[in-house]
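Hey team,

Filing this mostly as a record. A colleague (T.K.) asked me to run one chain through the structure pipeline before their review meeting, and I want the input and output archived in the tracker in case anyone asks later how it was produced. No errors, nothing strange. Just documentation.

Input sequence:
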Amino acid sequence: MSDETSVRHWNLDDVSEWIAVPGDGDDKYTRGVLGVVTGSNRYPGAAVLGVEAAVRTGVGMVRYLGDDVPAGMVLQRRPEAVTADGRVQAWLLGSGMDAAHRDDANRDRLHSALAQGVPTVIDAGALDLVQRSKGPTVITPHYSELARVLAAHNVTVAAPQIAADAVRWARRAARLTGATVLLKGHVTHVATPAGDVLAASEGPAWLATAGSGDVLGGVLGALVATHADEIVAGGHDALARLAVTAAVLHGAAGRAASDALGGGPIAALDIAEAMPAVVGGLLSAR
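Output structure:
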């Protein structure tokens, strides 16, 4: 088993300095623009959840580029989203996409985003493209997805083995891919290529629900877009802190959403909708 004493656990007291607060001179561009290539005609809901979460975490603008069905759903839910290409500070890629069914249009969107060299969050259906990324990158796999990432580097391991020794495998994946790795689980582990590991276990078990990971991607995408300069200066150390901050915020929003329902089950959209109050409470405490 991995040495857990080398893991720093991150909690609500650690996150407020990684939440960007706009000043009087800021506008939608200086507050950070997040480009999003997620969802598909097969799985459109992931696009809605990620965009919703990003908007509610705090970002100046979201540019959504995707298939017609998810684009229509995103605009219906968030009419302020922009569906035209343009400059961004960060990208969120891959949620709700399937590499096995990637068409030419989505391939071109993903390849174009990865070539731009800006900080990038890669999830689910774009994990196979991590080596194409030209910018600082964080990947957000669950155990089975990490097994596939490792298999691409000729490492054979099953999801249960990863779950039993998450620190070890997150570290190994970070070293092999050159990306920061956010390994999702009841305890979320974030590993850098240098071997540093941060962990978060803020949320309730109710977070294990369809679409929850898509919300986490949106939260992280917003944080990365609003801290692009810090990532350029701090590299994977900054990326890791932003990633574990996203996990803590996601967990806290899940708990708040459940508490609002008497401690009962939650849906993914509930997590996103609870985010502004969680962020506001943390900033008030700061």
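Quick notes for T.K.: The chain has a mean pLDDT of 96. Strands lie at 7-9, 33-37, 61-64, 90-93, 120-122, 137-139, 180-183, 188-191, 197-200.
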